[in-house]
Amino acid sequence: MRYGWHSIVRQALGGLSAVAPAWRNPEPKPAYDAVIVGGGGHGLATAYYLAKEHGLANVAVLEKGYLGSGNIGRNTTIVRSNYLLDGNVQFYEKSMQLWEGLEQDFNFNAMVSQRGVLNLYHSDAQRDAYARRGTAMRLHGIDAELLNRDQVHALVPFLDFHNARFPIHGGLLQRRGGTVRHDAVAWGYARGADSRGVDIIQNCEVTGISIEQGRVTGVETSRGRIACGKLGLATAGNSSRTAAMAGLKLPIESHVLQAFVSEAIKPYIDQVVTYGAGHFYVSQSDKGGLVFGGDIDGYNSYAQRGNLPIVEHVVEAGVAMMPGVSRLRLLRSWGGIMDMSMDGSPIIDKTAVEGLYLNCGWCYGGFKATPASGWCFAHTIARDEPHALNAKFRLDRFRSGRVIDERGGGARPNVH
Ligand SMILES: Cc1cc2nc3c(=O)[nH]c(=O)nc-3n(C[C@H](O)[C@H](O)[C@H](O)COP(=O)(O)OP(=O)(O)OC[C@H]3O[C@@H](n4cnc5c(N)ncnc54)[C@H](O)[C@@H]3O)c2cc1C
After folding, report:
1. Could you tell me the distance, in angstroms and rounded to a whole number, from the CA of residue 338 to the centre of ligand 1?
2. Ligand 1: nearest atom to the Cα of 363
3. Could you tell me the pTM of the whole model?
4. pLDDT in tens, the chain (416 residues)
5. Where are the domains of the chain?
6. How many CB atoms lie within 10 A of CB 64?
7. More exposed terminus of the chain, fewer Cβ within 10 Å: N or C?
């Protein structure tokens, strides 16, 4: 069913009987041309573009839990394309362009809100770094504005501009950045893929990968064996575990990242604002809650929950940036597992095992990458070679040393 005014009228008049499920709940078939492991944003987007762009519809997405149970349903919903380095700039801008047409493309309201992303700077050195990044963006045709303190004050007057340690000097603004409702992205891609014939199979955990003579032949799952010609892993925080089933050891560490939402207040923050003197980012949801996050918990974990020291750390940074929120009550917090790569950039590549493809290493930033990641991964799987947009996200860059270290922080997962 196509959603639009006619479907609203039909459902209003027809009651519950006129409401069709958004996607089917099929039993797994014994074999598929391609299987994608992981029903998060990236796995679902990959299946959608495999069917839509490459005509490959004999595809299954296998998800061990329910759709949206991973990071796609846990992130702080920020999208942007304000990158500096070659490879990242083009890829994330492709993602931004796909976000801009996504709702029309998959006929689903994902609440794409280009409310602007403002990164604050607090020193001359930080301003110079942002000026350089903004210039690189503009040279690639991407919007970026370097604002001084008065211009930032006009946008967000409630910040602590005169903080004794970290006074705010200005900010780098990308007006096309913003937020997108995260779980609607999963639902939209699921519905779009399903309507093109893709089987989305929930509660189906992949427990083993079969390889014969260097080639993938299928997967063992909690619902039996499924044969496939091609296998794509899009398991985010569990990437090391699923890749290990094929004998691969990845340059990835899994860490918890927490997010928080406050009680609802009146409209307060129109943009996404990030603090330059600490790790803190905040926006306001349509329900009125402030949605925010900060650093990862500093230990490896596969548990989707975090600990109290980071709660204190993140809230401290938030109150330093906007003291006015210090008496707000925290409503909820939760955690997701981040696949932190050693240069902070992702991996979208084929592997040495024939028919096995890898999508991982998203660190803090994989939500905004969802459309381009799915688009490029679908291309890589269908054509058996990377697209120019993901040609720099090869696995062997960690062997050759051609890393894409956007933050210049070195091989430390906690600095990305
Ligand atoms: C708190 C938090 C805040 C974030 N904020 C932002 C943000 O503001 N902006 C941004 O760009 N990014 C953000 N991110 C990062 C972003 O959410 C992730 O990088 C991205 O969602 C990862 O891709 P995914 O959606 O495919 O992952 P997931 O939704 O985690 O999908 C992976 C799926 O694989 C499944 N799986 C794992 N193992 C198996 C198996 N063996 N068999 C079958 N299925 C399996 C999992 O159950 C899971 O559903 C944030 C993340 C977190 C946790």
Report:
1. 7
2. 19
3. 0.97
4. 889 998 889 888 888 787 889 999 999 999 999 999 999 999 999 999 999 999 998 999 999 999 999 999 999 999 999 999 999 999 999 999 999 999 999 999 999 999 999 999 999 999 999 999 999 999 999 999 999 999 999 999 999 998 888 999 999 999 999 999 999 999 999 999 999 999 999 999 999 999 999 999 999 999 999 999 999 999 999 999 999 999 999 999 999 999 999 999 999 999 999 999 989 999 999 999 999 999 999 899 999 999 999 999 999 999 999 999 999 999 999 999 999 999 999 999 999 999 999 999 999 899 999 999 999 999 999 999 999 999 999 999 999 999 999 988 888 887 77
5. 28-78+182-249+343-415, 113-177+253-341
6. 20
7. N
Pocket residue to mutate for ligand 1, from 48, 75, 80, 239, most atoms within 8 A of Cβ: 75
Q: How far apart are CA 194 and CA 47, in angstroms?
A: 9
Q: Which CATH number fits domain 28-78+182-249+343-415: 3.50.50.60, 1.10.3720.10, 3.30.70.20, 3.40.50.620?
A: 3.50.50.60
The CA distance from 198 to 194, in Å, is 5
Taking CA atoms only, the protein residue closest to ligand 1 atom 41 is: 206
Tell me which fold the domain 113-177+253-341 belongs to: D-Amino Acid Oxidase; Chain A, domain 2 (3.30.9)
Ligand 1 center to residue 102 CA distance, Å? 19
Q: Which residue has the tokens 């994330």?
A: 92
What is the spatial distance between Cα 157 and Cα 142, in angstroms, rounded to a whole number? 26
CB distance 103 to 112 below 8 Å: yes
